């Protein structure tokens, strides 16, 4: 191996391949072609005198040397990327920029509505539903499919950073004309009614049982939905009940003619986090984008504070 430090551009390409998992994705990420990526890796291989990747199926797998090298160079490369991104300009009045975010179902409309009301319609927002697995979360962040994510699960990855947005509450929802629930609900009644529950979980922290010590195994579950809204819609047309975040319930309370109740049992709040890549910390456009999300969260929290006294236990 040569004593000279390899060209920074070669190390940047190498890091991109490590983070993206393939030459083609790295090429797309760096706005170049796969041939350029292969050439750069070949030059770096000659410089360090070590094999970097081996073929596996239709992709490549990093060698032990590459894993060790990446652990040592990723931090300074991210810092340098942050310096150059921080020098880029961004004008919220004239910019034409599309931001992409993944968010929980109960926050999606609030974010879209905020960006729809921006004076500069050249700035737009594209919202994705949340990934179903932790691995997908990491991939979508590292490949920058999303500029940021809002989630209740923090990814355990050194390239990401997060900021807590707010603590949310649950409410129990049923239709206003429910034959047995009128104006209040008890714990016993909650347990005996028929339930529509959210069946999409990740590390089991999307389920209500994670947030309360009440034994929920005795509930009479009749519907396992993959969407909070589908559960609300079902309960608005039946005698079933469901539990949803307060932030979603107030969006549809009047439209679906729903009764909302604080749960008649002790429960923990749901913490929501804004998550992004460390290397985007100093990017002016990304800083502006994060602040818009924070402002949306703050305004929603104020609204929830005013709505909360209306609920009955």
TrEMBL record:
User: Which stretches are annotated as coiled coil?
Assistant: none
- PROSITE patterns xref list: HTH_LYSR
- Keyword Cytoplasm tagged: no
- Return the InterPro entries for the record: LysR-type_TF, LysR_HTH_N, LysR_subst-bd, WH-like_DNA-bd_sf, WH_DNA-bd_sf
Q: Does the keyword Chaperone apply?
A: no
Domain of life, per lineage: Bacteria
Q: Which terms are listed as keywords in the entry? A: DNA-binding, Transcription, Transcription regulation
HTH lysR-type domain location = 6-63
- Give the family this protein belongs to, as stated in its UniProt record: Belongs to the LysR transcriptional regulatory family.
Q: What is this protein called?
A: LysR family transcriptional regulator
The organism encoding this protein is: Vibrio gallaecicus
